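Section handout 9: paired folding examples.
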Amino acid sequence: MPSNMEFLGVPDAVLMEIGSDMECCRQSLEELGTSIIEACTNAMEHGNSLDDHLPIQVIYEVDDDKVTVTVLDEGPGFDHEHWKPSDELMRQRGRGIQIMREFTDELEFGRHEDGRFLIRMVKNLQPAADDES
């Protein structure tokens, strides 16, 4: 996918399509969708400097009770081990990592075997409530 914000809704739409076949809590999917949008925004903006020629890749792995999503970019990455959340809760920017940590069950930053920077998120899916079926 190009590093263009116009495509930002695509990965979430794919997740919702995947989720439509699963019997899980809609809130779990929405939280993961928000995290995917944050990860893709960071990959496009910070990783690939919004260069349309540098793609990001989103990989979905679906199990019975969890979804793993990996977002890959061409950028240099960042020092995630020393990252600290902002005290300014009302800031409009700079909260993506905090949101991803809050909305996912596992969050990993690192390097893919091909050298690209990756963000891997795992969301354990809760069963759908009776009124969601």
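Moving on to protein 2 of 2.
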Amino acid sequence: MEYLSQILARNVRLLTERAFIVTARETLTYAQFDRRTAQLANVMQARGIGAGDRVGLYLPSTPLMAIAFWACQRLGAIPAPISAMFRHAELRQIIPHAGMKAIVADTSTWPYFAEIRDELQTLEHCLVASGDGSADDLEAMMARAPDTFEDRVCDPRDTACLFFTSGTTGRPKGTAQSHFAIGSTLRDMMVSHRNRFGEEIYLCAVPLFTNYGLNVTLNLCLYCGGTIVLHERWDTQRVLADIAKYQTTYFCGTPTMYVYMVNELDPDKHDLTSLRVCTTGGSPVPQPVIQRFESLSGARVSQVYGSTETCGQNVMEPTMGVRKPGSAGLPVGSSRIKVVDDNDAEVPAGEIGEVIIGGDCVAEGYWQDDKATAEAFGPEGWRSGDLGYVDEDGYLFIVDRKKDVIITGGHNIYPVEVETQLYRHP
């Protein structure tokens, strides 16, 4: 079993001069990325940050976010991505709860944090990329640091990342993902997506502080030895232009992103024919949108299903073969799907119940929250809180959130069915 920094070391050795991260302002090869992560790891180590320490990454989708995540892996520290949309209330909750020793920020996020800095007693270091070249500017400190680093040997079962999700149940919970769970999920996604090592070009416009952006896109790209075109924020016209400019082969986006692209796509102006693999998840995409996008790009858009608690995409609509509209697809790799009733008994094919995801992908639990962990994680895997069913061929269909079901007159009414009918209304 690998720990994550071994993946980076392997690909730096094999793909030294291949571009890894491309933005409108800079390009970093695998070798350059390796040196930048080493510099940041040295900066953190010099400040007493080490194995097991939690480091908050309060950053937008810039190369620094990727550098900080992988510097933590080399150091054996635990990166904890923080949504760039979180403000005082969330920061006051998650920073003490995780016992964060340090935080990495930039000029876009630091002002929100600085106002409450003195309240956060666990924090010893604030590493801020101010861009002013001063002595305490993070980029300046990195430039002065050595660009080699001896990676710490980790146990694959150690926590590799701590993701805080707001979810639907109140205060953010920290999902503890192990090296083994993340690595297993990356392997399964590479196979199910039919990714070609050292050849794919990804475009990421999903925030890197999410599991979808960080693991499902950035880290999958690194695992596969690909190049990632990184967008800090969504801009439909720029996304469409960059797909053609960089001959992008892989795109994963939210349903809303596909709607935006279909509405603004001009076949005479935008060439999307380089795309090989496109995925979407989070909620169903209206079939007319999928059909329109596929007709213009020639690529097949696969619905996927997964969660932060299971490190990525665990169910995927096949990129080839039988396709079933409305289905999330089939389990990938080691992932297992089980649908159970209120008594945890497995239900027959076609019968609706709660979806449980099991396999190597499952996270260790919620950070320092035994009660929530016991409620959501068990021997069979993670209880998703989603209602769905599996058909006779093993395809998973998601019906709705368990807590959203409306019971009236003894009948279950699923909001998604109401929404579907409203969408079809002229």
